[in-house]
Specification:
152 residues, mainly alpha, 4 helices, 53% helix, flat, signal
């Protein structure tokens, strides 16, 4: 241990070790390395616990609409030209978040004594609304335009 290079580097090594020990719990995982922690079981906001049954049902419906739209666009594919280059990578995680939110809102409805809605049925109903219409578009066919004629 009488190596002069080691003696010069020793304070830096000790400082690096001390810094690593102090920041050990604050480090972020490297990109691409899966986390060993499970996701939080409930995706509720603080305001959700204070909402009425009607407000929880409306929030549930909004989450079902978002989940149905994500499922629809995952099956159809994103529209070209709308800046959705990462859609295929980001949408599955967002869909999983919406499913977790639906489960959490269902549990909240059950806990508050509200009428409980089924998440699978709600998303299926929204998917049926998004199904293509006979004309091949998402919207119903537009009515024929009304032509006003002048009399006389």
């Amino acid at each position: 241990m009488s190596d002069p290079a080691f003696r010069r580097a020793r304070p830096a090594l000790l400082a690096a070790g001390l810094m690593q020990a102090m920041l050990g719990g604050c480090s972020a995982p490297a990109a691409g390395v899966p986390s060993l922690q499970s996701p939080p079981p409930y995706r509720l906001f603080d305001v959700d616990r204070t909402m009425s049954c009607a407000a929880v049902a409306a929030s549930f419906h909004d989450a079902a609409v978002r989940a149905a739209r994500l499922r629809h666009w995952l099956s159809v594919g994103p529209l070209p030209g709308y800046g959705l280059g990462r859609f295929e990578a980001d949408a599955p995680a967002r869909l999983e978040d919406e499913r977790g939110r639906l489960d959490a809102l269902t549990d909240l409805q059950r806990f508050k004594g509200c009428p409980v809605e089924d998440p699978v049925a709600a998303v299926a109903a929204e998917m049926a609304r998004l199904a293509p219409h006979p004309a091949g578009s998402l919207a119903p066919a537009a009515p024929e335009p009304v032509v006003l004629r002048r009399l006389g």
